[in-house]
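Hello everyone,

My group is preparing for a crystallization screen and wants a predicted model to guide construct design. The compound we'll soak is flavin mononucleotide. Before spending weeks at the bench, it would help to have a computed complex in hand. I've included the protein sequence and the ligand's SMILES below. Output in structure-token form would be ideal because that's what our pipeline reads.
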Amino acid sequence: MKTAVICYSMSGNSLYAAEQIAERLGADLIRIEPVKAYPSEGFRKFFWGGKSAVMGEKPELEPYDFPDGQYCAAVICSPVWAGRVSPPILSFLTKEKDKLRGMEVSVCMTHAGGGADKAFAQIRKVLENDSLKATLSLVDPKEAPGQEVPERISAFCSEILS
Ligand SMILES: Cc1cc2nc3c(=O)[nH]c(=O)nc-3n(C[C@H](O)[C@H](O)[C@H](O)COP(=O)(O)O)c2cc1C
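Reply:
Good plan to model first. Here are the tokens for the complex, ready for your pipeline.
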């Protein structure tokens, strides 16, 4: 059985990590998109996205393919929004909680400086899963790749495969 890498990314950083993880694991990459896109520029981007995350909103998602019985492991990739997991990924986790319960789940969060630990804790709580297989937090890997990102992604993938 295969691994699924599930990713929401507004500006490409989580996608950058997700693509590298999927390539190293030979995994399927599943993109998550809200039906109503969040503003992606200026003040509105932080206001509406931040508000949505703080309110715990679970936006409706565009259709995606995550069939039952096809995956034994999942890697969730998301940006940190207001110290939380992004709302589209919160929708996915809530909707697919039962399916994810039968899998080994790992998480990669990208952020601009903080909040990943709080987001990992939030994911553990939503999934009622105290034992994520592996966790990785990266500071804007696409914008600032000079932080040993490939090495850290490789170490994360080795932990997932161990
Ligand atoms: C609405 C919003 C809220 C954010 N909140 C945080 C935050 O609490 N902490 C942080 O370090 N970065 C925060 N960021 C920055 C993103 O987490 C970071 O740039 C991330 O790598 C973006 O990933 P993406 O390019 O895949 O969208 C926020 C960005 C947005 C749009």
